[in-house]
Amino acid sequence: MRSRELTSLILILTVTGLALWINWTPNENFFGRDVRIRLGLDLQGGIQVLLRAAESDFTRDELDTARGVIERRVNALGVGETVVQLAGSDRIIVELPGVDNPEQAVDTLRGTGRLEFIDSLGQYIPDGMLVRTSSSPNPTLTEADGITNTEQLGPIFQSITDGADLDTGAVQPAFSQGGVTGSRPAVSFAFRGDSARNLATFTARSVGQPMCIVLDNRVVSCPQINAALTDGSGIIEVNSEIDRDNILNQLKYGALPVPLVIETSRSVTATLGQESVEASVIAGIVGLTVVALFMIIFYRLPGILATLALLIYTLISFAIYRFIPITLTLPGIAGFILSIGLAVDANVLIFARLREEYRRGRDIRNALERGFKESWPAIRDSSVSTLITSIVLFLFGSSFGVSIIQGFALTLGLGVLVSLFTALVITRTFLRLAAPLFSDERSWLFGVERRSAPTAA
């Protein structure tokens, strides 16, 4: 065995071993990295929400910033494999697979995240009431509010703080220190700049009076001021940990520069997803089996080696999906199955050229090397064209909110790259190692006979 084949074999065994480890690690942890299989919305179930800008006066950059804020919020919910992307000129699509609390998730998406303290003029305003403030005198109304005109909300209350001055790093989960109502879930906060000074001044002169805390024009609570908030910080008491987490996520991950309303919200059941996974697995097994039988029957020993390389290709592909990680969707699985055909296509080109060179009278090693050399331009060009198509599809899905295309494009593109490694390294190495076993008397292993006398190499 020459050093070149030995080096390639060691590389193949190493890569295959790592792929096996990643795919079958018992605790789904690879050196501290989570390598679980991640399923998309269509396979796992969950909710899909379409958000629309409530105002027309905004820029594309502001909408993209809003997308980033929404993405940070949903990631804080602990939901994996989320999709948050722009759709058209004024919409954002949010996909949340496997959510445990859909109502909380929707509430987190809906809120703008603008926190204000207002002077309620000595009034204790009921929790949940929609109010007008000097910073936001015209809040976005929904059908649930039961009114069509902001004038019906009553007077405009003076804002003491500006949500832009909120120190998001100081927003943390907390608990109140007891008292009459006992310990309750809370959210700690801190303001900076003018808001901190205004809050200190107002609370110092209004001890014993109420001060209302407003989030997105809706009253969270109206606590009584017991002492001046001299450093601009404090806590917001809420009724439950769900309410606390909702407010925490809206405040901690920034305010939306563009108010959003929920245009549609739909649930996707996991039943259809499970059926799709099972059907896809069956399709993959059938496809691999049929391809393997064709290669073995038509190409004999090279077909057996190609089938072994194809199994390694499958192991490597799934290991990459788990390690990156890539969220598997039904179109993504379809892209992977299609890439299997592309992987076989490269082997077919190589074997067909190898046969042709052997018929011309070259010895098996020269026919092998010549077959790889002559087939490489066709393999290269077909792979590049498929990669270009995959990139265009991926960018198209990213730009226009068609996430279903992205999964297909991503798995297809990665499949092309892995298939190149399989054909040019794995299959070639196996054939080189097996070349000494071939002779003219064993040409049946190729399923081909010589047609002419040997020619010069």
UniProtKB/TrEMBL annotation:
GO molecular function annotation: protein-transporting ATPase activity
Domain Protein export membrane protein SecD/SecF C-terminal, chain residue ranges per copy: 264-431
One of the Pfam families matching this protein, by short name: SecD_SecF_C
GO cellular component entries: plasma membrane
Cellular location(s): Cell membrane
Domain SecDF P1 head subdomain: from-to ranges: 173-258
UniProt-listed GO biological process terms: intracellular protein transmembrane transport; protein targeting; protein transport by the Sec complex
Recorded topology in the membrane: Multi-pass membrane protein
Transmembrane domains' residue ranges: 279-298, 305-324, 330-352, 383-402, 408-431
Residue span, Protein translocase subunit SecDF P1 domain: 64-119
InterPro entries the UniProt entry points to: Acrflvin-R, SecD, SecD/SecF_arch_bac, SecD_1st, SecD_SecF_C, SecD_SecF_C_bact, SecDF_P1_head
Key word Protein transport present: yes
Alphabetized UniProt keyword annotations: Cell membrane, Membrane, Protein transport, Translocation, Transmembrane, Transmembrane helix, Transport
Function description: Part of the Sec protein translocase complex. Interacts with the SecYEG preprotein conducting channel. SecDF uses the proton motive force (PMF) to complete protein translocation after the ATP-dependent function of SecA.
Complex formation: Forms a complex with SecF. Part of the essential Sec protein translocation apparatus which comprises SecA, SecYEG and auxiliary proteins SecDF. Other proteins may also be involved.
Family, similarity comment: Belongs to the SecD/SecF family. SecD subfamily.
Protein name (database record): Protein translocase subunit SecD
Gene source species: Candidatus Viridilinea halotolerans
Name of the gene this protein is made from: secD
